[in-house]
Write a structure and sequence with these properties.
By secondary structure, this protein is of the alpha+beta class. It is about 55% helix and about 10% strand. The strands form three sheets. Strands 1-4-5-8 form a four-stranded mixed beta sheet. It has a four-stranded antiparallel beta sheet with strand order 2-3-7-6, covered by helices on one side. A two-stranded antiparallel ribbon has the order 9-10. It binds flavin-adenine dinucleotide. The site of flavin-adenine dinucleotide has 22 residues, from strand 1, strand 3 and helix 17.
C-alpha cells in the first residue's frame, strides 16, 4: 500500500428528502422485543424490565476473571500512556501483548479461537483499558465494537465466520469505513461505489473513506459502498452494501494518516479504493443492507463509549478526591470549600448513575429478549456528555495543574497526573459513533414512532383521503384510551415502596414519563410535520427521557447493591438519591423549557448570521483568509 497526498474534491450533497429516505430505509421498523425506553416515551414505566437489576451470570464472571486479571496487570506494568501520547504510536510490544492476551477476540466465539466472553465481560475489559489509555481503547473497540468481528457475528455466513474469525481472534486488526468527505452524519451523500464485475463474480469498489480508525493498521475492513439503485414502487431506492475488504488487495491505499486534538496514537486515515475487486462472497448480510447492518451493529457497538465514559468518571473521581483533600488554599483543603465540594459530590453521583446506565444496557444486550436500540443510544449520549462535564470539572479542581501536561508536571517533580490528556482524548466521544445531535434525532425518531404509526397518515403531507380517513379511525381507537390514561394513574405513596428511600424518585419517574408522553403528543399536535424541524423541542423531550432512564437505572442498581450488602448498599443509595434529586431538577427545567424558550429568536439570529448580517461582530480580529 502506498501513501500519497489526498486529492481535494468537492463533496456531494444529498437533499433533505434523500437523507430522510435513506435513513428511514435503514431503520429497523419492527419492535419485536420490549424496550424500557420506548415505553417510557409512551408514558408507561416498566420497572419490571430493569428491576431487579440484572446480575451477571456467575459462571461468566468466573470465566472472564483470569483474562481481566491478566489484562489489568499488563496495562499497569507494560503501558506507558504518556509515551504513547508523546510519540503518537502504540509500541509493537503493547499491540503484540494484547494479541497474546486475546484482547482482539474477546467476544469472538471460542470455536473460532476467541475468548468467547460476553458483552458485559467485554465492557469490563474496555473499562480497564480506558482507565489507562484512550488510543488503546480506540484500537480495541474500533476493531471489536464496529470493525469486522461484530457485524460478522451478527450477519456473517458460516463460511465467512470460518474464514475470518480465526484471523481476527489472533489479532488481525480490523476497521469500519463509513464516513466520507460528504458523509458525516448523512449517509445519503455516499460516493464510494461498488458495481458488479463483468464476470459477475465480484464487485468493483471505488471511492475514498475518511477518518477510518485503525485504517492505517488494519488487515480487514468493513466498507460501506453504494451499489446500483433499485426501483421500488416506481421510485429509485438507493442501496448501500457492506463489504469485507482486505487491506493488502490491489487498489487499496492509505492516502493519509489523520492526526487529532487527542488520541494521538490513533491509527486513523483516509483510505482510497481504486478498482478494488471484492469477491461477491465478501458481501456482508446482503446487497442493499449495508446501512441497516451499520445501524444494528452500532446498537451494541455503541455500548463501548458509555463504559469508557464510566472509566473516565472513576479516574477523575480518584484524581479529584485526592487533590481536593491534599491541596490546601485559604486555610483548608479545597474539597472543604463549597464550590469544589459541589463538583465532587456531583461527580460521584453522576459516575454512579453512568455506571448503572452502561451496565444495565450491557446486561440487557447479554441476556437478550430486549430491544435496546434506544437504551444504547441514550447510554452513548448521556454518558459521553456527563463524562465530558466530569473531566471539565476535574481540570478545574486541579487548577493550573489540570491544564499542564503530564510530562511537564513530571519534569518539575510533581505527580504526572494526565488530566490535560484525558480532556483531549475524551472530546471526540461526543462526535463519533453518532454525534450528540444525531443521537438526539435518532432517539426522537424512535420516540415518536408509535404516534407516526398511528396518526402519521393524518398529519403527514402527501397522503390520500382514503389514507387520512383510515388514519383518523386508527387514531380515534388508540388515542381514545391512551391520551386520558396519560393523565391518570397512581404514582404516589405507597407505590414502589420496595425501593426504600429511593421510592420517591421512582414515583417521580412514573409521573414524569406520563408528562413526557403528553409532551411528545402535544408537540406533535402543535407542530405537526414541522416538529421534525423543531429540534430544540425534540431535544428537550429526549433529554427528559434520558434523565428518567438514568434515574430509574440508578435506583434499580442501588437497590440491588443494598440487597446484596446493606452497608455498601447504603452508600450506593446515597449516591443514587443525590443523582436523582439533581436529575429531577434538570427534568423540571426541560419541561419548563418546552413551555417558555427562546428557540425562535435564537434560530432567527442564527439565520441572520448565515446571511452575513452580523459580520460586524467579527471585526477587530485577524480575519481568516478566504
Ligand atoms: C477521531 C475520529 C475517529 C473516527 N472514526 C471513524 C471510523 O472508524 N469509521 C467511520 O466511518 N467514521 C469515523 N469517524 C467519523 C465520525 O463518525 C464523524 O466525524 C461523525 O459521524 C460526524 O460526522 P462529521 O464530522 O462529518 O460531522 P457533520 O455530519 O458534518 O456534522 C457537523 C455538526 O453538525 C451536526 N449535525 C449534522 N447533521 C445534523 C442534523 N441533521 N441535525 C442537527 N445537527 C446535525 C453534527 O452533530 C455536528 O455537530 C471518526 C471521526 C473522528 C474525528
Amino acid at each position: 500500500m502506498a501513501t500519497t497526498a489526498p486529492p481535494k474534491r468537492p463533496a456531494t450533497r444529498a437533499t433533505a428528502d434523500e437523507a430522510r429516505d435513506v435513513a428511514e430505509a435503514a431503520r429497523e421498523e419492527q419492535w419485536a422485543a420490549p424496550s424500557f425506553v420506548r415505553d417510557l416515551f409512551l408514558g408507561k414505566l416498566r420497572m419490571d424490565l430493569i428491576h431487579p437489576y440484572p446480575e451477571q451470570d456467575p459462571d461468566e464472571v468466573a470465566r472472564a476473571k483470569p483474562f481481566l486479571d491478566k489484562l489489568e496487570r499488563f496495562l499497569r506494568e507494560k503501558v506507558d500512556s504518556d509515551r504513547i501520547d508523546r510519540e503518537g504510536e502504540i509500541p509493537d510490544a503493547v499491540v503484540d501483548g494484547l494479541k497474546e492476551l486475546g484482547a482482539f477476540g474477546i467476544k469472538i466465539p471460542r470455536e473460532y479461537g476467541g475468548l468467547g466472553l460476553s458483552q458485559l465481560s467485554y465492557m469490563k475489559a474496555i473499562a480497564l483499558v480506558s482507565s489507562v489509555d484512550g488510543s488503546l481503547t480506540a484500537l480495541l473497540s474500533a476493531h471489536q465494537s464496529i470493525g469486522v468481528p461484530q457485524p460478522l457475528k451478527m450477519f456473517g455466513t458460516d463460511a465467512q465466520k470460518q474464514k475470518f474469525f480465526p484471523r481476527l481472534a489472533k489479532g488481525a486488526i480490523s476497521a469500519f469505513a463509513l464516513t466520507e468527505d460528504g458523509v458525516g452524519s448523512d449517509p445519503a451523500a455516499m460516493e464510494t461505489s461498488a458495481v458488479p464485475s463483468d464476470d459477475g463474480e465480484a464487485w468493483i469498489l471505488n471511492g475514498e473513506k475518511l477518518w477510518c480508525t485503525n485504517g492505517t493498521k488494519a488487515e480487514l475492513m468493513v466498507v460501506m459502498a453504494r451499489t446500483p439503485s433499485k426501483m421500488v414502487g416506481g421510485k429509485e431506492k438507493k442501496q448501500i452494501t457492506a463489504f469485507i475488504v482486505e487491506a493488502d488487495w490491489p487498489g487499496v491505499e492509505i492516502a493519509h494518516r489523520c492526526h487529532f486534538m487527542g488520541l494521538k496514537a490513533l491509527y486513523n486515515g483516509v483510505i482510497r479504493f481504486t478498482n478494488v475487486r471484492v469477491p461477491k462472497e465478501n458481501v456482508l448480510w446482503g446487497e442493499g443492507k449495508g446501512l441497516k447492518l451499520a445501524l444494528i451493529t452500532l446498537n451494541t457497538g455503541r455500548l463501548t463509549l458509555p463504559i469508557s465514559s464510566v472509566a473516565a468518571g472513576k479516574r477523575c473521581l480518584e484524581i479529584a478526591r485526592r487533590w481536593s483533600a491534599e491541596r490546601v488554599q485559604w486555610g483548608k483543603p479545597i474539597g472543604k470549600h463549597d464550590a469544589i465540594a459541589q463538583k465532587l459530590g456531583t461527580m460521584a453521583a453522576n459516575t454512579f448513575a453512568m455506571e448503572a446506565v452502561a451496565e444495565l444496557c450491557g446486561a440487557m444486550a447479554e441476556r437478550g429478549g430486549y430491544d435496546i436500540r434506544l437504551e444504547a443510544a441514550i447510554a452513548k449520549l448521556y454518558n459521553s456528555e456527563a463524562g465530558w462535564r466530569i473531566i471539565d470539572d476535574t481540570v478545574q479542581i486541579r487548577g493550573g495543574r489540570g491544564y499542564e501536561t503530564a510530562d511537564s508536571l513530571r519534569a518539575r517533580g510533581e505527580e504526572p497526573i494526565p488530566v490535560e490528556r484525558m480532556l483531549r482524548d475524551f472530546r471526540i466521544n461526543l462526535i463519533f459513533e453518532g454525534s450528540s445531535e444525531i443521537m438526539h434525532l435518532f432517539i426522537a425518531r424512535e420516540a415518536v414512532d408509535k404516534h407516526l404509526q398511528t396518526a402519521g397518515d393524518v398529519v403527514m403531507p402527501g397522503k390520500t383521503l382514503r389514507q387520512r380517513l383510515a388514519g383518523l379511525a386508527r387514531s380515534a381507537a388508540f388515542y381514545g384510551w391512551w391520551y386520558p390514561s396519560r393523565w391518570l394513574g397512581w404514582s404516589l405513596w405507597p407505590r414502589y415502596e420496595e425501593f426504600g428511600r429511593l421510592a420517591t424518585h421512582v414515583r417521580f419517574v412514573d409521573r414524569a414519563c406520563r408528562k413526557l408522553a403528553r409532551g411528545v403528543f402535544h408537540s406533535m399536535i402543535r407542530f405537526g410535520p414541522k416538529l421534525e424541524q423543531r429540534q430544540s423541542v425534540l431535544f428537550r423531550l429526549v433529554d427528559v427521557g434520558a434523565e428518567l432512564f438514568a434515574i430509574a437505572a440508578a435506583c434499580s442498581r442501588a437497590r440491588r447493591l443494598y440487597q446484596r450488602d446493606p452497608a455498601a448498599g447504603t452508600r450506593a443509595m446515597k449516591l443514587a438519591d443525590l443523582f436523582a434529586r439533581q436529575a429531577r431538577r434538570r427534568v423540571r427545567a426541560q419541561f419548563a423549557g418546552l413551555r417558555r424558550n427562546e428557540d425562535v429568536p435564537t434560530y432567527r439570529v442564527a439565520q441572520d448570521i448565515l446571511e452575513g448580517e452580523h459580520r460586524w461582530l467579527e471585526r477587530g480580529i485577524v480575519e481568516l483568509s478566504d
